[in-house]
Amino acid sequence: MRGRPTHVAAVVLTAACVLVAGCGRSESDASEAELKVSTTTAIIADLVRQVGGDRVDVTSIVPHHGDPHSYEPSPGDAAKVARADLVFGNGLLLEEPGIMKMVHSNARKSTPKIEIAEKLEQYGGTVMKLEEDLGLDVLWLGWAVEGEVAGDGSQVRTTATGLEGPGDLRVYLTDTLGRPKVYVDSRDGFDDSDSFTLPPEAHTHVNWAFSEPGTYRLTVEGRTETLDGRTEEFGSGTFTFAVGTDAPEGATVLDGGHADLALNAGTGKVYVRADDEKSGERRRFAPDEVVLNVPDRARESVPEESAYSFLGEAGDPLWVLPQAVLGKHVHGDLDPHAWEDVSNAEAYVRRIQAELAKADPAGAKTYAKNASASLKRLGALDEEVGRTLATIPERNRKLITTHDAFGYLAKAYGMEVAGFVVPVPNQEPSAAEVERLGDTIREKRVPAVFVEPNLAARANVLERVAQDEGVDVCTIYGDSFDDKVHDYVSMMRHNATELAKCLGGTAG
Length: 508
Hints:
Elements: H1 27-32, E1 35-39, H2 42-52, E2 56-60, H3 75-83, E3 86-89, H4 97-106, E4 113-115, E5 140-146, E6 155-164, E7 169-174, E8 180-185, E9 195-198, E10 203-205, E11 207-210, E12 214-225, E13 231-243, E14 252-254, E15 258-264, E16 270-275, E17 282-285, E18 290-294, E19 299-301, E20 317-321, H5 342-359, H6 364-390, E21 398-401, H7 407-413, E22 416-420, H8 431-444, E23 448-451, H9 460-469, E24 472-475, H10 488-502
Parallel strand pairs: 1-2, 1-3, 3-4, 5-15, 13-18, 14-18, 21-22, 23-24
Antiparallel strand pairs: 5-10, 6-9, 6-12, 7-8, 7-11, 11-20, 12-13, 15-16, 16-17, 19-20
Helix pairs in contact: 2-5, 5-6, 6-10, 8-9
């Protein structure tokens, strides 16, 4: 926003129906379009429509209600991508890796594949570091890939090749519907099925479940995989876990905060990377320099649901480092949700204009005219967002949500992300965790908490605690549209109005 105070307030949008994504095109209109464009999300599709007008036929891979972090593309999505003259994604690892792999596998080689946010700053936008701090009382351990891998759509496969210890290890991921997907299971030995892939510079959260207390040593190896089937092994390492027992004397012990077992495809090294809880500095440890602690307080029981029978008999003890964030949630170091700052949406429009004109030079004047009109609307919208959210009393400008998607909104408009609340997969929150959430709501004196419609299934804990604390539960949109909100402007207008209404400001 031009001349906008650094600390204004959170999110809104005003504009006419001119940006409505739901305004459909007839089949005859689509057949006359100069470009067929496929986008990964409905938000990007809407912005492309505003710039492209009648010269583009736009489809989105992730539908309304969908979550780009976890959506699994269908054969129909692949067919649309195969017909596309241009594919737009967000980038910064917003999209579930399977989406981008499908794009690179099915789009024609000559089709430009643009990840808009990857060069956002060149078009007047800003990107920011993704902050993750769920306050778990045990180590939050994930997997990560560092280093570049040549080739579009290339991935790094991490494979468990051996385990020494008194019991079994299962590494699994719980999706947004609570269903587990097992990646590593030591019970029947190890083969290529005890593995998973990540794109370069990516990270993901998983559950680590050990069946018995004691010391374990897990060996993993990495290899690169390209879309044309070429593979190359590049490194291996053995990691030590102290499960319900004391770590060896003299060892550096990690027992809290955020860490990853990391494979570097560029150097061939395998190590533990961890964020120092005091300085925030990222440190890297060779496998023999560190012990990963799974304390006795991490002891849980095998759930009764049949889907978790791979963990053992219901009620059997388990020592678990939890995933904490439901769904695949693969991401990098930078926050991909840049559009939540309206001035960044302007940068999206500039990039879209440039790429459409490059693909269709005959339409350059049309794209420039449409982009100019869109930028004018978004500029006015950005000003309105600031004015609306500035009406929220400063003491109330705090966001507690179900998703870490609102950092840009907070930074741009003078809000504070007080916390995003997600359940630990497969277990009810402890009394202490529920109490801590209640304490946060009371300490921050928030009048409301916010739930995203497409993540409502995750919100029962937040809603229950909010009810106990006597605060409102309101709706905010992050990654996707729904049946009520069909376009970017309506989404941001809703967010601004809802934030102001629920946090004591003046709505519209």
